[in-house]
Amino acid sequence: MTDPDFRSGFVCFVGRPNTGKSTLTNALVGSKIAITSSRPQTTRHTIRGIVHREHAQIILVDTPGLHRPRTLLGQRLNDLVRDTYSEVDAVCVCIPADEKIGPGDRWIVEQVRQVAPRTKLIGIVTKIDKVSKERLAPQLLAVSELLGPDVDVVPVSATSGEQLEVLVDVLASHMEPGPAFYPDGELTDEPEETLMAELIREAALEGLGDELPHSLAVVIEEISEREGRTEKQGELLDVHALLYVERPSQKGIVIGKGGARLREVGTAARSQIEKLLGVKIYLDLHVKVAKDWQRDPKQLGRLGF
Ligand SMILES: Nc1nc2c(ncn2[C@@H]2O[C@H](COP(=O)(O)OP(=O)(O)OP(=O)(O)O)[C@@H](O)[C@H]2O)c(=O)[nH]1
Ligand SMILES: [Mg+2]
């Protein structure tokens, strides 16, 4: 029987880099479908996460953090985010509880209003576990002033889980009545290959300096099923991936002394991928230089941007 009160729709998360959009997406979906890191500009494509509740299905569109672009990659990411504003029922502007509202936030709000003047806005104050109640109150007020008196502002913490269900209810209240878009249990429409490449990139980002994270891109070259496995051994996938950096000097950093760093990345990524896909994998990683790919239209195309 169809539920006449069932609501469904699309919501996108926007905000400056590093404001917790992907962590919040994962927390609401209940599974790690988007990679996260303490480095700004971790997310590089829009990722759909599906939130299933008894009376609603909400499709979250996590987007790359918005900032003034310095490279062609930056420009492409900004365009991508702008395209999603008008395709969703509501845009959630994410602002961390522990950082002052700045010109970057105002610029994002202006962009949203310009591109999608009729799309509903919602304010989300993220990372509330990092501040006291006394510090949170003025931040909620400031976000409310930024977005206007008619806009809902919801404080949440993705890491402690505080207020997550309140946020789901607020999002659902902004959806139109309608049937689910995705079958029960489906958590994302990311292809497995993309999920694998992203988990490898996440593992490789860990512990890198300030500049290298932006220079890193991961491409899955080949996935094949190992032959001759017995039923007891179970399925094994051979996954071959290339890690691209922009300069020869970066190659050594990613590989590490005697290959130690790359081996660590492989081990960490393999365990994440096996957890996500529920199948054993053999992961083969190689590092290559694609000179200044962030600024080169041809290379960007090849890397999927
Ligand atoms: N304490 C705390 N930290 C958080 C919370 N949410 C995210 N973080 C941390 O903030 C950092 C950035 O999180 P991400 O989810 O990658 O941020 P993002 O907005 O997706 O970043 P970009 O993809 O670069 O735009 C990570 O180190 C997270 O662990 C939270 O609720 N509480
Ligand atoms: Mg992100």
UniProtKB/TrEMBL annotation:
What are the record keywords, sorted?
Answer: Cell membrane, Cell wall, Cytoplasm, GTP-binding, Membrane, Nucleotide-binding, Ribosome biogenesis, RNA-binding, rRNA-binding, Secreted
A Pfam family of the record is KH_2
Give me the Gene Ontology terms describing cellular component: cytosol; plasma membrane
Q: Which SUPFAM superfamilies match?
A: P-loop containing nucleoside triphosphate hydrolases, Prokaryotic type KH domain (KH-domain type II)
Looking at the record, the residues that make up the Era-type G domain are 7-177
- Tell me the compartments it is located in: Cytoplasm; Cell membrane
The record's HAMAP family line, in alphabetical order, gives: GTPase_Era (MF_00367)
Q: What function does this protein fulfil?
A: An essential GTPase that binds both GDP and GTP, with rapid nucleotide exchange. Plays a role in 16S rRNA processing and 30S ribosomal subunit biogenesis and possibly also in cell cycle regulation and energy metabolism.
Protein name in the entry: GTPase Era
Organism (species): Rhodococcus rhodochrous KG-21
